[in-house]
Amino acid sequence: MKLSLVPISKTLQKITFECGYPVLNEYFKLYALKNARLSIGKTFVAVDEAEMVIGYMTLASAQVEARSFPEGLKEKLPRYPVPAFRIAKLAIDTRFQGSGAGSWLLRQALDKALSVSTEVGLYAVIVDAIDEKAKGFYLKYGFTPFSEYPLTLFLPMATISRARSGE
């Protein structure tokens, strides 16, 4: 399956999308385009050759209190919040779950974070997992949960950069 990544549009928003999580389906149908226009979160849609919506991700900026990071990391950070790149939403249509589309979409998000980090300071990518199953997905890719917020995970930009340069 060959996928392309395109910005959310009115046309794409009307295509059937069901990921198994009503809140993520509703966000895609009702709020993704509006939030993109307001620059609250930019949504990108994974489509296949037939223009079927396979999944989507919403990206935004964020900041994280340095004290939220685990011991060993927070000692190296300033006492004020550090900049981060947030994967606010990432969802795959149920018809394509288990096909590798989620991994592909995550790689696209990490590539966008790397690109932004060449121009803007970013310490880490953070993600808000919707539940324990989603958390398990991110753990496979090296994300670490914050102790205070176990469904919010992070991956330092330095780790992403090293992984990409080793590919």
- Backbone CA Rg: 16 Å
Q: Helix- and strand-based class?
A: alpha+beta
The main β sheet shows up as: 7 strands, mixed
H-E string: EHHEEEHEHEEH
**Poorly predicted sequence stretches spanning 5 or more consecutive residues:** none
Describe this structure in words.
The chain has five helices and seven strands; from the N terminus they run βααβββαβαββα. By secondary structure, the chain is α+β, with helices and mostly antiparallel strands. The chain has a seven-stranded mixed sheet with strand order 1-2-3-4-5-7-6, with helices on both faces. The chain is globular.
What distinguishing features does this structure have?
alpha+beta; 167 residues
Chain-wise SSE layout:
Blueprint: E1 4-7, H1 10-13, H2 22-37, E2 42-47, E3 53-64, E4 82-92, H3 101-117, E5 124-128, H4 132-139, E6 144-145, E7 152-156, H5 157-165
Parallel strand pairs: 4-5
Antiparallel strand pairs: 1-2, 2-3, 3-4, 5-7, 6-7
